[in-house]
Amino acid sequence: MPPTPVALSRPDLVRGIRRWDFVALIVNITIGAGILGLPSKIYALVGAYSLVAYVVSAAIVALIILCFAEVSSRFNGTGGPYLYARQTFGPLVGFEVGWMLWISRLASFAALCNLFVDYAAFFWPTAGAGVGRATLMAGLIAALTLINLAGVRTASRVNNLFTVSKLLALGLFTAVGLFFVDWQAFSFAVPPTYAGFSGAVLLLIFTFSGFDVAAIPAGEIEQPQRNVPFALFVAIATVAVLFLLVQVVCIGTLPGLATSPRPLASASQQFMGPAGGAFIAGAAMLTALGTLNALMLTGPRLLFALAEQGQIPAVFGALHPRFRTPHVALFVSAGLKLVLAISGTFIYALTLSTIIRLGYFALTCAALPVLRRRYPAQPAPFRMWGGAGVAVVCVALCLWLLSNSAANEARDVGLAAAAGLGLYFLTNRRGAKHT
Q1: Which pLDDT belongs to residue 250?
Q2: What is the pLDDT of residue 2?
Q3: What are the b/e assignments for 391-416, b being 16+ CB within 10 Å?
Q4: Rounded CA separation 96/103 (Å)
């Protein structure tokens, strides 16, 4: 009988993230800055059928979440998709997943930091360029680093505050905007093209992502085998309804939606007047800030998990003697995020995030039937009905979406994966020399 797949977490980690803290964390990560610009891009691709694209994307994500819920319920260690891939498919595949996920988080943080500064320039023009821009970025990253250094409970409380504030801001936009919707603006007479619709769904998969990253700090979640599946379902349902309402308001209040670079700001000006622009600028900063804090909490845990499994130097697994947080991984990640943010040359990496995510989405879904066959006497605490069939469907959907990605994006992901592969073999060779 093979050993249990459950990977126990470090006993000196503090399980300070409670059930609703975790729900808030997933909601906070998922409601990112993309919702502030995506409505116009989706509408340009498929028009009013963008509402259908939201539903289809949410349904695909819900199926993937079902697979994540069962697989994640077998584990209570830190690492999320990295841990699942390592335990199921071996250390090499696990390392690649952790490596690519970490790169994706660094690039996303840097891009989002730039977005925060751009919106901050609406109120403080000197923050838009030069020394003012770099100073604001450095101060922002330093503050978020100190918050997350001080302990997971402190970081969770701050995350909860950002999440509630973010939901209130977007909720106000939809609640007020629905009274001004022109329902004649919704036309379904011309069906979308295959390329347009599949491209829209591909973009929206990125918008709905976040549940996967939120599972990374499972080693610090109370009763993760019960709370992770619960939080995944509650959070994604909340996000799906909110995103759909935002799209409805944008279509119904903004005639030039397809060409608007800032659709929520433009829509707000239609029904709120000049104050609408300031309102959305503030909401954008709040949204970016909340997501940045969540990324600062989860991203360094990937380095911690890789070190915990002995795949990178053990120093990255060190815990702060007072706060019991992975301070080395946190400081290294923060430093790289600052460099990437100030350089402003890594925004394109955001377009690679969906490809990276779909890759480990497929691996996690594929892990479900493998773990069921490997441990028949140890069923998962959360067991999905028809799990093997759903997993096959999810893998097929991920491959379908990957087939719609551009060649340049696939090439860049391949180069990043190859770099990780080289690092993996270099680390293992050094380890072998010292044994």
Answers
A1: 93
A2: 47
A3: bebbbebbeebbebbeeebeebbeeb
A4: 11
